[in-house]
Design brief:
The structure is a single chain. The protein is an alpha/beta fold and about 475 residues long. The chain has two domains: about 5-230, Spore Coat Polysaccharide Biosynthesis Protein SpsA, Chain A, CATH 3.90.550.10; about 245-440, UDP N-Acetylglucosamine Acyltransferase, domain 1 (3 Solenoid). The protein is about 20% helix and about 30% strand. The strands form six sheets. It has a 16-stranded parallel beta sheet that branches. Strands 14-17-20-23-26-28-30-33-36 form a nine-stranded parallel beta sheet, with no helix packed on it. The chain has a seven-stranded mixed beta sheet with strand order 5-4-1-6-10-7-11. It is elongated, with a radius of gyration of 31 Å. Bound molecules: uridine-diphosphate-N-acetylglucosamine and calcium ion. Uridine-diphosphate-N-acetylglucosamine (UD1) binds near residues 13, 105 and 204. Uridine-diphosphate-N-acetylglucosamine binds near residues 11, 13, 105 and 157.
Length: about 475
């Protein structure tokens, strides 16, 4: 944490009309998180949660839920009367906190903490009342223009609509990101008037107000303009999503993860992946997934909110959701670990096997074509091809329990609730409705009948 205490206010009360959405703009997702979540995560690199505040208005409840970081505060702006108003309504919560006041937008998720640290340093270094982030743009249409004074400071910010033709030609634009000395900001903020065509409280007026009071304001031009790419439409949302994901993959690769054809791979922001793991093309690794070292995630697989220990192998076209895979476990190709499964060390689940709320002990196998639901399966169990747990009777779900080293023959039907003892065998194609004791053999099928010469006789009949 920095020496200069900073309070961060994130403006996120607007709806964002140009998104053409019933959902508030900051709730839209890019890089696997709501836009506002990214900004809060960045703010947490600058200040403790207790000094971070989000100004909410449209869909305030949903925005609060999306942020859900303990300690982060919220300021309700019931009516959106402008960027200045958005900060003014927080006076009670904010004015008592000294140091610096940094203002960010909830719809600018690309802004890096590094850049903002420079802004704080710039504010703390000189004797300015504040520093604003600017960009020299090829086309600054829509942005407030930065009017420099003779000494290189900022005299004013003029909104596009109020610009004279000369001012419109200015390329340096206000990014709406500021770091002010908190004492001076709160002393003068009430001088903001609504004497503009929009009749809003413009935060941008603070620059002139502070100049008038005998202070000066500096500007810090940003190096990489793409960082301040805000989102107004879904086109920009897609572009920001792409940039965030590129950034994530870059960080993973620099951290020792091999990513094949990275342009096809999707990894959410909160995912962590260990060294020497290989991610094959078109894989999607989502939510709060953590993956250990030396794993392999097969082509076109989807892993969501799951935990994979070291040496885990996920084959191609496999779906893993809210599951835990211990060291060396393998799933796929073509496996579905639907929800809340747990594969023990070295367990193996093969093609066209679906697991739901099932635990498989160490070294157990279900290599082909099976459905195992609500099952507790011990270690070194072999589940034959075509095995089905009948866990649902039309009313409720019932458990299946299979002891260590049991052997379930192919095409068995296990009618739950049912228990198969340790070391027991189930003959292939059995329908098992009663508990099987340990080390027993259960055969639950019709006995085979042989009708000698039956086929030959039938053929002979057909010739007549
Ligand atoms: C603002 C700046 C402009 C700058 C631009 C950069 C002002 C008057 N103008 O313009 O100089 O170039 O940002 O993007 O500040 N918000 C609230 N409550 C409100 C109004 C806005 O929370 O009452 C939030 C919005 O949800 C949005 C952000 O503040 O996230 C910016 O508001 P917006 O109306 O988009 O400002 P701009 O017109 O873009
Ligand atoms: Ca805007």
């Amino acid at each position: 944490m920095m020496q200069t205490p900073v309070t961060v206010v994130i403006l996120a009360a607007g709806l964002g009309t140009r998104m053409k959405s019933r959902k508030a703009k900051v709730l839209h997702r890019a890089g696997g998180k709501a836009l506002v979540e990214h900004v809060v995560a960045t703010a947490l690199e600058l200040a403790p949660a207790e000094r971070i505040f989000v100004v909410v208005g449209h869909q305030a409840e949903e925005v609060r839920k999306a942020v859900a970081t303990p300690g982060v505060g919220f300021i309700e702006q019931k009516e959106q009367k402008g960027t200045g108003h958005a900060v003014m309504v927080g006076r009670e919560a904010l004015a008592g906190l000294g140091g610096y006041l940094m203002i960010l937008y909830g719809d600018s998720p690309l802004l890096r903490a590094e850049t903002l640290k420079h802004l704080i340093e710039a504010a703390a270094a000189g004797d300015a009342a504040g520093v604003l982030l600017t960009a020299r743009m090829a086309d600054p249409t829509g942005y407030g223009r930065v009017i420099r004074d003779a000494r290189g400071g900022v005299a004013a910010i003029v909104e596009q609509k109020a610009c004279t033709p000369e001012q419109l030609a200015i390329r340096e634009a206000n990014m709406g990101i500021y770091c002010y000395r908190a004492d001076l900001f709160w002393k003068h903020v009430d001088e903001i008037r609504t004497d503009n065509p929009a009749q809003e409280y413009y935060l941008t007026d603070m620059v002139e107000i502070l100049n008038r009071a005998g202070h000066h304001v500096d500007a810090m031009p940003i190096d990489d303009e793409r960082e301040v790419l805000g989102i107004n439409t879904r086109l920009e949302l897609a572009e920001v999503d792409r940039l965030l994901r590129e950034r994530k993959l870059r960080a993973l690769m620099l951290g020792g993860v091999t990513i094949e054809k990275p342009e096809t791979v999707t990894v959410d922001a909160a995912v962590s992946i260990g060294m020497d793991t290989v991610i094959e093309p078109f894989a999607q690794i989502l939510g709060r997934t953590t993956i250990g070292e030396n794993c392999r995630i097969g082509a076109c697989s989807i892993v969501r909110d799951s935990e994979l220990a070291d040496e885990v192998v996920i084959g191609a076209f496999t779906i893993v959701v809210t599951s835990l895979l211990e060291r060396g476990a393998q799933a796929g190709p073509f496996t579905r670990l639907r929800m809340e499964n747990h594969l023990g060390e070295g367990a193996y689940v093969g093609n066209f096997v679906e697991l739901k709320k099932t635990r498989m002990g160490a070294k157990s196998k279900a290599s082909h074509l099976a459905y195992l639901g609500d099952s507790q399966i011990g270690a070194r169990v072999n589940v034959g091809a075509g095995t089905i747990t009948c866990n649902y009777d039309g009313f409720g779900k019932h458990p299946t329990k299979i002891g260590d080293r049991a052997f379930i023959g192919s095409n068995s039907t296990l009618v739950a609730p049912i228990e198969i003892g340790e070391g027991a065998y189930v003959a292939a194609a059995s329908v098992v409705t009663e508990a099987v004791p340990p080390d027993a053999l259960a055969i639950g099928r019709a006995r085979q009948v042989i009708k000698a010469e039956w086929a030959a006789k039938r053929r002979a009949l057909g010739k007549k």
